[in-house]
Amino acid sequence: MEPIEKNLETMAALEKENKFYNNRPIKTLLTLYKGNYLKLLRAFVCFFVKHSPVWFTPIVATNIINIISSGEGDQLHKIVINVSILLVLVLINIPSNYLYIRYISLATRQVESDIRINLVKKLQVLSIPYHKHLQAGRLQAKVLRDVEAITTLSTQFCNSIVPIILNLTVAFTITISKNGSVALFFALSMPACFFIVKLFRKRIRRTSRDFRKNIEEMSATVSQMVEMVPITRAHALEQVEIDKVDSTVHKVKDTGYKVDVLNSFLGSCSWVSIQVLQVACLLFTGYLAYKKEIQVGDIVLYQTYFATVLNQVSAVINIYPDIVKGFESINSVGEIFLAEDVERHMGKKKLKQVEGHFEFNDVSFKYEDGLDLVLDEFNLDVKPGECIAFVGESGGGKTTLLNLLIGFMKPTKGTLLLDGQDMTTLDLHDYRRKIAMVPQNTILFSGTIRDNITYGIPTVSEEKLNEVIEAAALKEVIEKLPYGLETLVGEHGDMLSGGQKQRIAIARALVRDPSVIILDEATSALDNQSEMHIQQAMKNLIKGRTTFVVAHRLSTIIDSDRIVVVSGGKNIENGSYEELMAKQGAFYELAKGRIG
């Protein structure tokens, strides 16, 4: 199966099976662990074995005290038996603890990995408009910090909550089997501790939510600051950026301080309550022993188990802030998983081949948060193989037209047909495999020039690669570089000039041998000589392919089959260069200013 087809199946499965539920973090967490329940069960069995010395030590101590205090004859063998049993249980702790950690880690790390990879998959199917509203820094905080918090929550549940439940169960079972009055005392004491949690619950949730949002805001601000460093330095605005980051950092500091103080106060209140209750237990069991209702050694047993009960309650109180933080992170990551603004391709028509016949029929478009129409009943019929150039003032709708042609956006009204088919009914993922685009802002990734040109294409012959390099006027550039095609371009291609980066982007588009070519200011960063080479090469390359060009240079569009003047979201004039110049209309005025 080809990687692309495999990815499509994965994306379809992701859309069908959603493990996140809106504001239901516990249900979400349980669903996330589906497929790992057997590992967890094995882990808890191992925990029961490894933790057994903690439960049996009070029993052994009580037995020894009662044996000694009974005053009976030779009872040394009973003491030896008790100690031997305890020693065996202690030694078993080593293998059982290893197995416990192993199964817990296998489960939690698998869930952590699944969340991250599924988060990436979800981001790949979310629509382009949705991505435009996402801030990279906030997204990074979700992928790194929030997923880590979910893992911590999972670990807390496995290492704390379940052991707490087991400890309480064992302590109450043994206590009930020996003395119902003491067990009742235990049960009546617990609500006092949980009452403390109730007092702090809302404030802890609120401060945790505020802290998480401030962390995301800080991450977004820092990310933006890094991107802006060249502009900031060029305009001597370093202090402006420092002040922005300083403001968000102080918000994180203040909110973090509130979280720390609140958690500390909660811990102090719970500790005092526990100490008071333990004194009360000692007084109660001492009274029962004084009345001969229990043996003297039983005081140690009950005091130890009561301490176990209170310590488990205290543990719940202490990890409660982490649990709230984890639940908040589940809701945070869930914002991405529950987003419905996705591209759905399954079940839609696939074109065996793209002829390149496009028809805009009264196409209007408006952004969701916009007031005015970007396109207003736009009409245009593009024949297969035509080269169409869009020109006009900034904000007229040219880039929006290209986004509609790629399928990034859908018309608000009207229809856009491709080879007679409404594009909203087509499998756009399959369609995009047959087109190539060079965006206005050149996007390169860290890697070699070869990697960037052949991005997403596993096998490209050297002959084909050389042909593309020649066509994109890259040959001389590559020959001058120290490692040729294997030269690293740096992050975002920062080791190259703007013109060199744009030529690599053009080569990346051309190597795909597309049916449709979309060029958004593809030659804007090239010098006149390089542009001349590319234009000559592209005359041959675009022959027989439908091509759309947005450009502000007259030289780039002069040889187009048709030039379309876009103004106010409408097609106000179109024709060849000669026809439009002869009309002396809108294009003529633009051409006098050399387009702009």
TrEMBL record:
<feature type="transmembrane region" description="Helical">
    <location>
        <begin position="182"/>
        <end position="200"/>
    </location>
</feature>
<keyword id="KW-0547">Nucleotide-binding</keyword>
<dbReference type="InterPro" id="IPR039421">
    <property type="entry name" value="Type_1_exporter"/>
</dbReference>
<dbReference type="GO" id="GO:0016887">
    <property type="term" value="F:ATP hydrolysis activity"/>
</dbReference>
<dbReference type="InterPro" id="IPR003593">
    <property type="entry name" value="AAA+_ATPase"/>
</dbReference>
<feature type="domain" description="ABC transporter">
    <location>
        <begin position="358"/>
        <end position="593"/>
    </location>
</feature>
<keyword id="KW-0378">Hydrolase</keyword>
<protein>
    <submittedName>
        <fullName>Xenobiotic-transporting ATPase</fullName>
        <ecNumber>3.6.3.44</ecNumber>
    </submittedName>
</protein>
<dbReference type="Pfam" id="PF00005">
    <property type="entry name" value="ABC_tran"/>
</dbReference>
<dbReference type="GO" id="GO:0015421">
    <property type="term" value="F:ABC-type oligopeptide transporter activity"/>
</dbReference>
<dbReference type="InterPro" id="IPR027417">
    <property type="entry name" value="P-loop_NTPase"/>
</dbReference>
<dbReference type="GO" id="GO:0005886">
    <property type="term" value="C:plasma membrane"/>
</dbReference>
<dbReference type="InterPro" id="IPR036640">
    <property type="entry name" value="ABC1_TM_sf"/>
</dbReference>
<feature type="domain" description="ABC transmembrane type-1">
    <location>
        <begin position="56"/>
        <end position="325"/>
    </location>
</feature>
<dbReference type="GO" id="GO:0005524">
    <property type="term" value="F:ATP binding"/>
</dbReference>
<keyword id="KW-1133">Transmembrane helix</keyword>
<keyword id="KW-0472">Membrane</keyword>
<keyword id="KW-0067">ATP-binding</keyword>
<dbReference type="InterPro" id="IPR017871">
    <property type="entry name" value="ABC_transporter-like_CS"/>
</dbReference>
<dbReference type="InterPro" id="IPR011527">
    <property type="entry name" value="ABC1_TM_dom"/>
</dbReference>
<feature type="transmembrane region" description="Helical">
    <location>
        <begin position="157"/>
        <end position="176"/>
    </location>
</feature>
<feature type="transmembrane region" description="Helical">
    <location>
        <begin position="79"/>
        <end position="100"/>
    </location>
</feature>
<keyword id="KW-0812">Transmembrane</keyword>
<dbReference type="InterPro" id="IPR003439">
    <property type="entry name" value="ABC_transporter-like_ATP-bd"/>
</dbReference>
<dbReference type="Pfam" id="PF00664">
    <property type="entry name" value="ABC_membrane"/>
</dbReference>
